[in-house]
């Protein structure tokens, strides 16, 4: 099996505190996992606030270097990507989606501008027709079209629609991996389901792997193929989503999922669907 992404005993420490009372915070401890290049999947990192999820995501995106250990993307050491050209190539294949779609887009700039500039930057398309065609294609993958988005500003759209546009922007360069950090936590409960379902569609139709980062167990249970649970920087449990979240072994994951899901998978599924539809 060749690897799309490989984390090998990755650690990240931060020095915190002042000059005289500084100490080391182990934000991420010895994390290892591999995503296959052949089989796209939704790989979810679950954990409470401060568990190290975002730090892990930032290292995967090359925005943070590990204190020790290695992260490889398509065989390349992410920390070793130096030149602008290599960085651009890497970014085209590993795209982020952030928590707050309202912050991702400047309210004074039309949304199509972001999509056009992404097409120009990553695909090198120069002519207007080509840029519009690439933009429309990406928007179609998220259930929108350029006609609906052209000339619109972020305040004219809902959080759910904006997050779809953020996903479309991420799709333009043709990524193999999307790292989505809490992508639905700012989206209305009634629209969350449609966004997480979109991730499934992207996995199945475009073969994109998704690293889905969340503290929300119901969406994690609903869409994930595999899950790791992080607690204070450690991976305390890992495996396929149904077994980890449906039948957690570690004390922390039991506490985490017991609060939300009953042990019976069918009952759990019904609760999740009600929650995702915003009924609970
Ligand atoms: N640049 C930094 N300097 C110092 N400490 C940091 C830095 N970035 C993160 N941390 C600390 O590392 C730990 C893990 O943070 P991280 O943001 O990865 O957690 P998280 O699980 O994503 O939580 P959240 O959902 O709140 O973002 C926290 O204790 C955080 O305060």
Automatic annotation (TrEMBL):
Q: Which GO terms describe its molecular function?
A: ATP binding; ATP hydrolysis activity
| CDD domains, per the entry | ABC_NikE_OppD_transporters
| Keyword ATP-binding in annotation | yes
The residue ranges crossing the membrane are: none
Query: A Pfam family name for this chain?
Result: ABC_tran
UniProt keywords (A-Z) are: ATP-binding, Nucleotide-binding
InterPro entries reported for this sequence: AAA+_ATPase (IPR003593), ABC_transporter-like_ATP-bd (IPR003439), ABC_transporter-like_CS (IPR017871), P-loop_NTPase (IPR027417)
Q: Where in the numbering of this chain does the ABC transporter domain appear?
A: 5-257
Report the superkingdom from the record: Bacteria
Q: Which family does it belong to?
A: Belongs to the ABC transporter superfamily.
What is the designated name of this protein?
Answer: Peptide/nickel transport system ATP-binding protein
């Amino acid at each position: 099996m060749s690897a799309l992404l490989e984390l090998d005993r990755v650690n990240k420490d931060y020095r915190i505190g002042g000059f005289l009372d500084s100490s080391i915070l182990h934000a991420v401890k010895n994390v290892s996992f591999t995503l296959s290049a052949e089989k796209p999947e939704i790989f979810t990192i679950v954990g409470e606030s401060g568990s190290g999820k975002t730090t892990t995501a930032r290292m995967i995106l090359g925005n943070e270097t590990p204190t020790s250990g290695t992260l490889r993307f398509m065989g390349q050491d992410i920390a070793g990507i130096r030149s602008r050209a290599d960085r651009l190539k890497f970014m085209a294949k590993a795209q982020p989606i952030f928590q707050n779609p309202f912050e991702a887009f400047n309210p004074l700039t039309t949304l199509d501008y972001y999509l056009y500039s992404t097409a120009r930057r990553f695909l090198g398309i120069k002519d207007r027709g080509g840029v519009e065609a690439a933009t429309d294609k990406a928007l179609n993958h998220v259930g929108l079209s350029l006609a609906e988005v052209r000339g619109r500003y972020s305040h004219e759209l809902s959080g759910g629609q904006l997050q779809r546009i953020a996903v479309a922007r991420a799709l333009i360069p043709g990524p193999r991996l999307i790292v989505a950090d809490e992508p639905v936590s700012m989206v209305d409960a009634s629209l969350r389901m449609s966004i997480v379902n979109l991730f499934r569609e992207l996995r199945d139709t475009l073969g994109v792997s998704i690293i889905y980062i969340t503290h929300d167990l119901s969406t994690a249970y609903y869409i994930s193929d595999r899950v790791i649970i992080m607690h204070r920087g450690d991976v305390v449990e890992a495996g396929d989503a149904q077994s980890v979240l449906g039948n957690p072994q570690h004390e922390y994951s039991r506490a985490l999922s017991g609060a939300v899901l009953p042990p019976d998978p069918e009952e759990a599924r019904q609760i999740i669907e009600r929650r995702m539809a915003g009924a609970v």
